Amino acid sequence: MDPHQDIHPDPLKGLATDPTSIVLANVYATALMDMMSGDAAAQQTADELDALVDMIYSIEGCEELLTTPMLRRDTRLELWNKFFGGRLSQDVECLIHVMARHGRSRLIGQVARQFRKLLARRRGFLEIRLTTAAPADERTVRHLTDIVQANTGAKASIITEVNPALIGGMIVRIGDEVYDMSVACQIRRIRGQVLAHKPNVKAVAV
Q1: Do the domain assignments include residue 33?
Q2: What number of CA atoms fall less than 13 Å from residue 51's CA on the CB side?
Q3: Closest by Cα among 156, 153, 119 to 141
Q4: 3 occurs within a structural domain
Q5: 4 in any annotated domain
Q6: CA distance readout (Å), 120 to 115, 158, 170
Q7: What is the pLDDT of residue 85?
Q8: How far apart are CA 110 and CA 15, in angstroms?
């Protein structure tokens, strides 16, 4: 991999994105990062969290079962152990148990994302979120990386995600700046312009 580029899919999977959830997830992610012995261990943990989120969504009904507030704390822990016992590192297993005891298992996807952000920051990367209608090809990612590096001098940590609703084009988020170059955005813009200039036509009875 290019030393100025870090590419990985978005692990969030549509989980909680409200401000409170993000703050809580960042607390868990920061505590986990503090346990890391170095970049190699942190990278391995980031990959493990992403794989865990993918695994949860690959098993039908698993997410609902593991995150429902209807179950007692002990029952939630038993379910986590049944699904993933012995398959996780000690650090991630400890994290899962703490979150399950506090009824915050639903934040695991957000924790995975926040942990990626911390890792990128630790390595001096600038986080870029690239959303496309179909999986972005290597040429597109490379071009975006080159533009960012040429204008900022920073290495790029690119998080890719797919949203078919865009129809085509892309949305690029760099920090708080959002650049919407999607076909869907263009259609909305054209529709707005047409409606703004559309004359009021009254029906005339014949």
Answers
A1: yes
A2: 11
A3: 156
A4: no
A5: no
A6: 9, 10, 22
A7: 75
A8: 7
Instruction: Please tell me whether residue 71 adopts helix, strand or coil conformation.
Output: coil
Tell me the residue type at 18: D
Tokens coding 171: 């949305």
Contact 83, 93 (CB under 8 A): no
Contact 114, 144 (CB under 8 A): no
**Widest pairwise Cα distance in the chain:** 83
Q: Report the SS3 class of residue 126.
A: strand
Q: Give the three-class secondary structure for 181.
A: coil
In this structure, are 91 and 190 located in the same domain? no
Q: 132 forms bridges with which residues in the sheet?
A: 162, 170
Report how far residue 183's alpha carbon sits from residue 148's, in angstroms, rounded to the nearest whole number.
22
Segment 63-78, tens digit of pLDDT: 777 777 777 778 878 8
Which position has the token pair 């029906």? 203
What is the mean pLDDT of the segment spanning 32-43? 93
- 115 and 144 part of one domain: no
Could you tell me if 45 and 88 lie in one domain?
yes
